[in-house]
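Q: Please design a sequence for this.
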């Protein structure tokens, strides 16, 4: 039997690459260098399935083709706003993602960022490494207590709920959520959470605000100067969702004029480039998009994509189809 021709756009965990090689006629991007738009266009003409990931921009231009061979985009990652869905749809391409398997690890990282920002861990680490630490004193790098405070969660999907679990059951935090649709009372009850009327209602009620909503055009600059002004003075903003959700210029203003206490970002608008104004800000913790970066989650993400691939070529509906 002729095996489907598959392109994997970046390096994947070795165990997953090995299984992909056994089951498909697969080409790996051994150099791990991001593909250009024209390379994606060619790939869509040459392969039955393309396995991209969240940093592959597959816009209208990459999909402007008359008769692509590719019928499946099995994305490695839960977010898929980097793919122009109407164009994929117009070509009859099925798109899948890898939900669930990264929720716990992403929530762990959001907790890490929240604690780092509140307890000034970034500033402390810089001080130690640069040899500027002059010893313990009562007023040194005093931060903000996390336990027992109120956490506002924006987007109450799987990752948002894992964040609530950790914050409520581990740190005794009160949970307020904002979600596009009404959250079932039994889900809220698991974390003793309440659903805010809307985002503007959540912001002034929260000591910490953690973003877990999708990115893309619909949520671009959801957090802007008006909404930053609604946050409590001294409150912290955490982003493990997508960079474009925050207007970074407005965030820098809020940090500079100390209208909020601080922020912690794992994702950036236009990453991996980071605005100099963010780099210059001391009240900001930054990580390089590490949300799902554990050996366990990254391997499971790969097997989840493989599962979608196998289902598709067996003539079944892939379990994580998103269109
Ligand atoms: C995703 O899956 O969308 C993350 O951003 C990468 O883990």
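A: Design:
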């Amino acid at each position: 039997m002729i095996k489907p021709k598959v392109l994997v756009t970046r390096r994947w965990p070795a165990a997953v690459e090995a299984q992909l090689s056994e089951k498909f006629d697969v080409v790996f991007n051994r150099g791990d260098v991001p593909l250009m738009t024209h390379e994606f266009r060619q790939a869509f003409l040459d392969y039955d399935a393309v396995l991209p990931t969240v940093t592959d921009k597959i816009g209208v231009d990459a999909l402007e083709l008359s008769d692509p061979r590719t019928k499946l985009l099995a994305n490695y990652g839960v977010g898929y706003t980097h793919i122009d869905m109407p164009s994929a749809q117009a070509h009859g391409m099925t798109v899948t993602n890898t939900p669930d398997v990264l929720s716990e690890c992403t929530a762990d990282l959001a907790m890490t960022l929240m604690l780092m920002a509140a307890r000034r861990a970034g500033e402390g680490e810089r001080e130690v490494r640069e040899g500027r630490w002059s010893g313990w004193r009562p007023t040194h790098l005093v931060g903000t207590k996390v336990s027992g405070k109120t956490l506002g969660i924006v987007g109450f999907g799987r990752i948002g709920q894992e964040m609530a679990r950790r914050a409520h059951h581990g740190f005794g935090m009160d949970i307020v959520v904002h979600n596009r649709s009404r959250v079932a009372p039994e889900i809220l009850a698991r974390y003793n959470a309440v659903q805010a009327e809307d985002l503007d209602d959540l912001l002034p009620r929260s000591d910490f605000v953690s973003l877990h909503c999708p990115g893309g055009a619909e949520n671009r600059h959801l957090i802007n100067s008006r909404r930053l002004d609604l946050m409590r003075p001294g409150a912290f903003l955490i982003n493990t969702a997508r960079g474009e959700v925050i207007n970074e210029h407005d965030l820098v203003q809020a940090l500079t004029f100390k209208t909020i206490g601080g922020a912690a970002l794992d994702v950036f608008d236009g990453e991996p480039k980071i605005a100099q104004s963010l780099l210059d800000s001391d009240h900001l913790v930054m990580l390089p998009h590490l949300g799902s970066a554990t050996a366990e989650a990254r391997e499971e993400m790969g097997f989840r994509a493989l599962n979608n691939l196998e289902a598709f070529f067996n003539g079944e509906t892939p379990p994580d189809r998103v269109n």
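Q: Thanks. Anything notable?
A: The first strand starts at residue 5 and ends at 8. The chain has twelve helices and twelve strands.
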